[in-house]
Specification:
Elements: H1 4-10, H2 15-30, H3 37-44, H4 48-55, H5 58-84, H6 89-106, H7 109-119, H8 129-142, H9 154-172, H10 174-181, H11 185-205
Helix pairs in contact: 1-2, 2-3, 2-5, 2-7, 5-6, 5-8, 6-11, 7-9, 8-9
Length: 208
């Protein structure tokens, strides 16, 4: 029998899908501890009983949101890998940063959910940790920091985390950083991409 998440994906216009989309947004804005199912139900425009009927308890919905986010990140990484295949390391990095920034700026709840997971205690150990380990392995191989996904050094993992956390913070902290730069959103996104490339591309290609 399909899970509620699978059903939501099969029919993006269904009530399950609408609730999931709102849950991603609300959990991403307030975190698990400060979000209630009533807040999500209000955002969708339904009563609380309808939410429980489709998704069960708050933790069930949160787990589905994290699984959905983890799968979406992996899908984007796979897309990036297809786009950079056969290119030089410099080109791969530039394309990867552009595509990942575009995706995350368009889905700000994703970096927010990841950062909330870092700094706030999740219910019963529900986190993105396992997915993130897989993502780091895929990125390390794509960037030629490791020969395969089973041979990734601590140094390579740390370098990937440095890139990942820099990107997440630029996006999650946009409302804090952008006024400091005194610029509009479109220019901010452009500057973030340029800055990431300025710092990260030389760092990753220096010994190549």
């Amino acid at each position: 029998m399909p899970s509620p998440l699978e059903k939501a994906r099969q029919d993006p216009n269904s009530m399950k899908a609408r609730i999931l989309a709102s849950a991603r947004k609300v959990f991403g804005e307030y975190g698990y501890n400060n979000t209630t199912t009533r807040m999500i139900a209000k955002d969708v425009g339904i009563d609380i009983s309808t939410l429980y009927y489709h998704w069960g308890e708050k933790q069930d919905l949160y787990e589905a949101v994290l699984e959905d986010v983890g799968d979406a990140i992996q899908h984007k990484l796979n897309e990036i890998e297809r786009n950079v295949s056969g290119q030089s390391l410099t080109t791969r990095l530039e394309i990867a940063l552009d595509m990942m920034c575009d995706y995350l700026f368009s889905h700000p709840e994703v970096p927010n959910l990841i950062l909330y997971g870092y700094f706030n205690k999740a219910p019963n150990g529900v986190t993105l940790d396992i997915k993130m380990t897989e993502h780091i392995a895929n990125i390390a191989v794509a960037m030629e920091l490791a020969p395969n996904k089973n041979q990734i050094s601590v140094q390579a993992r740390a370098r990937i985390l440095a890139v990942w956390n820099t990107v997440l913070n630029f996006i999650s902290a946009e409302n804090f950083f952008r006024p400091m730069l005194e610029t509009d959103r479109e220019h901010y996104i452009q500057v973030v991409k340029e800055t990431l490339k300025f710092i990260l591309v030389p760092a990753f290609t220096a010994d190549k």
